[in-house]
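Action item from last meeting closed. Structure (290 res):
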């Protein structure tokens, strides 16, 4: 019964729900192996026999929301994979400033953005985006210290996303090479790209309202988003979303909501914003999505 409360579409879309369950099983089995110590050592060994990819001539940054400061070492590990000097923008609840500084002690090129604990990672991200702090970058990796305590596979999902998006240097360089094409707006992991109608959940009406405010053309208003809101992006691709000027107070107070809030709707609008301005959305192999 708990599954039906969390996924009310299960009976209406049995095939989609069955696929969702299979994805969960894959995550807690193959995914757990992939991010385990032996799995990472094997992947590192295999990566070592591949030729080194060329470093693209673009400016790169990383932005992460650090609600759980104790996970910042994983964020720093992702940054260490990237070539050259990469600025790390960290959004964090203002009341966690001191503990966050302790975990980041000695880390160079870190910019802290204290914020209200509202809108999860989304509201703080939009605040930084709207400030212009990311305007000078060609490609930015968006991460957050996701735990998802309501999910049995929450820890594995976070580690999988981190590893897929920025866990190996050559793979990361291939993603950065996609941003040498000025039409590339977003790049993410195909396995987290959701297009099936049940993934609207309780958010379709609000997404369509936001899309209307963005003046998104009809062909851009469709379901296709990276579940978990972690991906690579070009800041210019989110101009339409930025122009909405959403403020932290527009987002609902934090009450551990699982669906139906403004931040859930915005999660489904990143791709719409990119498509609305003519940008493409790609997977980690450079294939166009959506």
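Sequence:
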């Amino acid at each position: 019964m708990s599954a039906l409360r969390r996924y009310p579409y299960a009976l209406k879309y049995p095939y989609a729900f069955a696929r969702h369950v299979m994805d969960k099983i894959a995550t807690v089995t193959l995914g757990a192996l992939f991010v385990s110590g032996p799995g990472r050592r094997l992947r590192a060994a295999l990566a070592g026999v591949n030729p080194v990819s060329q470093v693209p001539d673009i400016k790169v940054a990383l932005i992460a929301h650090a609600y759980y400061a104790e996970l910042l070492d994983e964020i720093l590990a992702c940054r260490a994979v990237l070539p050259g000097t990469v600025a790390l923008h960290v959004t964090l609840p203002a009341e966690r400033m001191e503990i966050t500084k302790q975990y980041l002690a000695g880390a160079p090129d870190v910019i802290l953005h204290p914020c209200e604990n509202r809108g999860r990672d989304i509201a703080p991200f939009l605040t930084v985006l709207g400030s212009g702090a990311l305007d000078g970058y060609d490609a930015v990796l968006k991460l957050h210290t996701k735990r998802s305590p309501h999910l049995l596979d929450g820890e594995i999902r976070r580690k999988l996303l981190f590893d897929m998006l920025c866990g190996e240097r050559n793979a990361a360089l291939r993603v950065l090479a996609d941003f040498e094409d000025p039409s590339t707006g977003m790049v993410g992991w195909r396995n987290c790209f959701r297009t099936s109608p049940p993934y609207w959940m309780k958010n379709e009406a609000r997404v369509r309202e936001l899309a209307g405010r963005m003046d998104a053309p009809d062909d851009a208003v469709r379901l296709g988003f990276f579940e978990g809101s972690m991906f690579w992006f070009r800041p210019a691709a989110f101009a339409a979303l930025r122009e909405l000027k959403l403020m932290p107070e527009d987002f609902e107070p934090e009450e551990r909501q699982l669906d139906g809030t403004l931040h859930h709707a915005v999660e489904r609008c990143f791709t719409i914003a990119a498509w609305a301005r003519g940008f493409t959305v790609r997977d980690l192999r450079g294939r166009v999505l959506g």
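Note appended to the action item: The mean pLDDT is 88.
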